[in-house]
Every structure is written in C-alpha cells, then in structure tokens.
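Supplementary notes for students who missed Thursday's class. We covered one full example, reproduced here. Read the sequence, then the structure, then the short commentary at the end.
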Amino acid sequence: MVFVGVRVILAIHIVHFTPDNRRSMPLSMRHLSKVFFALSLTATLLAGCSLLPEKIDETRGWSAQRLYSEAKDSMNGGNYKTALEYLDKLQARYPFGRLAQQAQLDTIYIQYKDNEPDAALAAADRFIKANPRHPYVDYAYYMKALVNFNRNNTLLEQIAPSDRDKTDTATARQSYSDFAELTRKFPESKYAQDARQRMLYLHNNLAAYEVNVASYYFRRGAYVAAVNRAKYVLETYARTPASADALSIMTQAYVKMAMPQLAADSLRVLERNYPQSPELPKLNVLVKGAG
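Structure (token representation):
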C-alpha cells in the first residue's frame, strides 16, 4: 500500500489512572512526545517500504530452452545452486515439456554433486515413480546406487580418511542392492558394466568388514563367535580375498579351543585354495604344536 501526502491529525485526551482509581491526572508532555514520535516513525516506515523497487526476475519470459541452457552452463561451471534455481523455474513454467523431464534427471545429479544425498535420493525416487517407462529411467536407478555408494564420503572422512571395511555397512548394502536392481532391470544399460564393477568392489569390502568383526572377536577371546563369523564369510562371500583371512582366523580359533582336528581341516582348505597365503608357515607351526 502506498501512502502519499500522509497527514495525521490527533485530538487526544489521555488520562492516567492511579492504582486506587480515585482520581486521574493528564500524562506528562514527555509521554505525549513519545506517542507522537512512535506514530511518526510508523508512518515514515510504511511510506518508505512502499517506495522500495520491486525485485525484477531477469528470467521472466525466458523459453524452456534458454532456462535449460543457462542451467547447464551453471552446472558445468560448478555453480550448482544457481543451476538448480534455473531447473526449478523450468519445471514450474513448462511442466509438460520435453526439457522438464530432463531437468528432473539433471536435478538428481546436481544434488548429488552438491552433497545433498537425501535430496538426490528423493529426486531419483520421484522420477522413477512418475516415469517408470522413460528411456533414461535407468540413469535414475544408477544415481540412486551411486549416491549411497559415495554417501560416506563426508568432509570429515576427506580430512581423516577411514577404512570403508571398518565402518557401518548399511549404506554399502543398500548401494549393492540398488546396483543389483539396475543390472537386473536393465542388463543392457550403458551403466550396467560400471554397476557390476562397483558391486564387486562392495562385495569384497563387505567380506572384509565381516573378517574384521571375526578378528575383533578372536582378539578378545570370543573364539566361538570368531569361528561363526568366519564361517559366515566363507558361506556368503566365497572366493573373495577375505576368505583366506577367514580361514586363518578359524584355524587359530580352533587351536585356542583345543580342537586340533578342526584346526587341521581349516588349514588344509586354506592350503588348497590359497597356496600363496603368507599365513601358512605360521599356521602350520601352530597346528603341529596343537596336535
């Protein structure tokens, strides 16, 4: 609202009541001055606010193609927040155009690059649900898996890197499941080969994690738990590099539990499948001493 030529005329008789309400007296001139000052200030602020220029949207009237081109330029320059603003405007103004769906796919990538994994996953899920037959829906599945694959790459880990096989495995398992879904639904996708390689990496890391757990139990004298976890590795992650370590832990745990025959059996499996294992000389001495 614009106030032009504001003129305030007041005729005020202000009465101040004493606590016992028995008599009244006019307010002092000092109090009246405060009232007039507050009214004048309010009128000035209202008039001033109305005179502020309206913020101009430079993209008003832009075509979908121009919005998308500007978004791509910003994205390629690493200015992800600006790129996202352009894509949001494109989708809002041209929701049914061809570029709107491409904008949704690019939004997934931008939020992934901008370290917003939850937003990226939500965007991918929305696209998959709304466009299950889209020719590029495999990209949304791939990005879902990739977000979880890199989810532990936080700033803290970049400063102080940690071994992935010694950390929580929830996101790794979810990523493996997402990549598996991609390769199952879209075996000929251009992302399938990369997905399979990442699945192999995750498979080996999950096996290494379980061996670390078995080693933890062994170091603390929980030999039954160590053997059970090592068996789980052999059953679930057979033919991974971690299998040799699992057999080594089993052999040592059986020796500690005074079970020389089981220790010898574990050692024999290790020798047959991993003849180059550096643990063999030490384990042979250990088993012979126990027998």
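Commentary. Residues 192-219 form the longest helix (28 residues). Residues 214 and 228 are 8 Å apart (CA to CA). If anything here is unclear, bring it to office hours.
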